[in-house]
DNA sequence: TCGGGTTTGTTACAAGCTGTTACCAATTCC
DNA sequence: GGAATTGGTAACAGCTTGTAACAAACCCGA
């Protein structure tokens, strides 16, 4: 039995890190996130068994995020919220949450409920959830997630390294959404903090550009958002297979 | 989608019948019960999708009943109780309950939570019993565990060494799950530590690739997860024989 | 028991991947 | 305009992986 992988989504950094370390101490693999973009970025590259989602994020609504995730994913979601009125709980269950836990919560009870949901899911010998990789199209390009093939508009295949592919997946999961280097690094690696300081992401972006941009000097798709990070300025369609 | 069948267990007859009729009005099939004996009798004759079990029965303990049921059945159980202290809830989750709802409860919320559990159950394909399945299929290939035969998509038989076969079996048992060299070594041998240091797994993987990959230089199934190990990126089905 | 073929692990080397650094260009801010 | 900040990228070094070649171990029939 593999170790359960959780994604902890909360915009209060203290609470977020508290939960992450608490779960890690109890034998889970736990990653932090703060926004829908980060969730998507993380799901694009990582296996996740369960998402603990705070309902009140800075300027996003956990209920809506939950609804959107559920409309395409099957990943278990437990909503966490200071709002404990019945109608608010109902709203959570209606968008497909597996459980709804009120803050403040008893940490042990939280773990028990997480385990209860995981137990139910784990019955099937299925693997951890990972965003369905099928075929993606963007600006004439084609990425086949199953074969890991990137096909240029002219039909030729382009070879990407695994890291470049991972970056591409993160970008495809967040078209038109500016991503900071930190967000990208967090989605790409299991040790988000180690990447701090270096220019690894910049170089990686440069390498991907050199392979998928017609003119890497004037990137059309993988654009720089000066002072912020990068944006994948390209419409993306996902094809079910 | 069939109509969910519930079993309502409560010794307070008014509460019991209230719940039964309430659920029936909301499109469920609901049967009443009052004791462990009745539960067993009902389970012996009927399909049940979920049991709503009151924790405090006349002279029986819902927690213990839940534990006993769980030890032999996989039926979802939601505990209902006037006891709402954290340690009492914990006790419920510990014996395998899927949820624990305090009395008095909001009926709508109860239905929402029942649905949440049922949704999860439906989704996960029913556990396939460990029958002696000996034929596996993966990406056009066929592996007959009984005869130890590996048949290529073109119908030709490929000869694998025993070690290669063992590796294949490990991979077939863990499709889509990244395995470290250590995990593979541990699964293959009884002396995991002896393999440390060497490149035995790498070479073994290379040899298997050369036999089952169409293009061993660009493996489709037995992929490398750089920095981690290997993944069998291939859907696997087991055939009953 | 011997002798050949087969299987398996080890080693060594080549190739490829990735992060870091350093330097330069572009942009922004006074 | 000039300084400061930010981003691009070439070059490099360290590390990981693939695999050929070799040797030891194993198997099996004569």
Automatic annotation (TrEMBL), chains A, B:
Keywords: DNA-binding, Phosphoprotein, Transcription, Transcription regulation, Two-component regulatory system. It comes from the Bacteria. GO terms for cellular component: cytosol; protein-DNA complex. Residues 133-234 bind DNA. Residues 5-118 form the Response regulatory domain. Coiled coil: none annotated. Pfam families: Response_reg (PF00072), Trans_reg_C (PF00486). Residues 133-234 form the OmpR/PhoB-type domain. The keyword Phosphoprotein applies. One of its GO terms (molecular function) is phosphorelay response regulator activity. GO terms for biological process: regulation of DNA-templated transcription. CDD domains: REC_OmpR (cd17574), trans_reg_C (cd00383). The modification 4-aspartylphosphate is found at residue 54. This is Transcriptional regulator. The lineage of its organism: Bacteria, Pseudomonadati, Pseudomonadota, Alphaproteobacteria, Rhodobacterales.
């Amino acid at each position: 039995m593999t170790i359960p992988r959780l994604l902890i989504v909360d915009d209060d950094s203290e609470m977020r890190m508290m939960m992450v370390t608490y779960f890690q101490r109890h034998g889970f693999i736990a990653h932090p996130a703060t926004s829908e973009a980060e969730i998507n970025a993380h799901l694009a590259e990582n296996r996740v068994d369960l998402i603990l989602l705070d309902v009140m994020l800075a300027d996003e609504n956990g209920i809506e995020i939950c609804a959107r995730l559920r409309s395409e994913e099957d990943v278990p979601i437990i909503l966490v919220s200071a709002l404990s009125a019945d109608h608010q709980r109902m709203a959570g269950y209606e968008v497909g949450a597996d459980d709804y836990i009120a803050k403040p919560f008893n940490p042990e009870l939280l773990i028990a409920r997480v385990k209860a949901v995981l137990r139910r899911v784990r019955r099937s010998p299925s693997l951890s959830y990972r965003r369905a990789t099928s075929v993606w199209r963007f600006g004439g390009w084609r990425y086949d997630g199953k074969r890991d093939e990137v096909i240029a508009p002219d039909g030729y295949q382009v070879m990407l390294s695994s890291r470049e592919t991972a970056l591409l997946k993160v970008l495809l999961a967040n078209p038109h959404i500016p991503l900071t280097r930190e967000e990208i690094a967090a989605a790409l690696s299991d040790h988000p903090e180690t990447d701090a300081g270096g220019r690894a992401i910049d170089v990686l972006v440069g390498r991907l550009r050199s392979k998928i941009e017609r003119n890497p000097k004037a990137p059309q798709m993988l654009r720089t958002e000066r002072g912020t990070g990068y944006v994948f300025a390209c419409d993306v369609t996902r094809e079910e297979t």
